[in-house]
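Cytochrome c oxidase assembly protein subunit 15
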Amino acid sequence: MATTPAVSVKGASRAAVRFAWGVVGYNVLVILWGALVRATGSGAGCGNHWPLCNGQVIPLAPRVDTVIEFTHRCMTGGATFAVIGLLVWTFRATVKGQAARVMAVASMVLLLNEALLGALLVKLGYVTGNQSMGRVVVLSIHLSNTLLLLAALTLTARLLGTGQMRSELRLRGKNALWAVIGLAATLVVGVSGSLAALGDTLFPASSLRMAMEQDFASGSPWLLRLRGVHPVSAVIAAGFVLWLVAQARRAGAGRLAMIVVGLLGFQFALGLADVLLLAPVWMQIIHLLGADMYWVALVTLAAAVVWPRPTDGVTVRG
């Protein structure tokens, strides 16, 4: 029996696709500001109140840490409206069965979960100088959710452009397996990197030698001894990613593959600079910006390899 070919529909309007990528960019800014909150110890700037700030809708005579934390909450609120707008626009610009709808819904769910986890950190007091295991656990879940949210938004933007159907998005074969492993390994790198940055913030070192001694000293806080996980996981993840890049070049996505390689190399350079400079706040933010750009490019590359753009099929205007 002959197999019915997958039917692809026309991608959404350029305006919808641009808006979707704009939402991705805005969420990157929210992530960067969240890192600033952590790096400056401003997580308790609004006290133990959420969603209010120190019991007020708009804080009066705020301290610097209050301004930083309140700004982050305002940016998060803006992200909520942006993702809601993306969800509505995606459903209006597509037809039933298109994959972009699935990713838009996933983005909305992950954003709500993001807000819940952020509120949990505040209400449980897992901010500023808190060094508990509970903070590390909740923060790790929070960071994982952040990267998954960014991935869902990225896939929404891409699938709006390609117009692919949900039935086409299947994870089969070696390429799909390696792509998933590569993304999962990179997610571990992102989470371990943020935990390493937390260690740098809570236990700053006055010299590179002191920082190295902290990592291996038996009496060091366990958070510092975990810092070694980040570079090791980065090297392991890079191996999977380079394999994925090779597959992408064979599949005709050479330009995107080279962007990923360039960003990967840039990340290693930023990581080395971060260590040599003893992780100042501005360097942590730049390093995180590079990581977010790399993650977005990698997710896009993985989609291009596993779910290539349809080259034929029926074109339907949504």
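thats it. The chain has two domains: 10-169, 170-310. Residues 170-310 form one domain. bye
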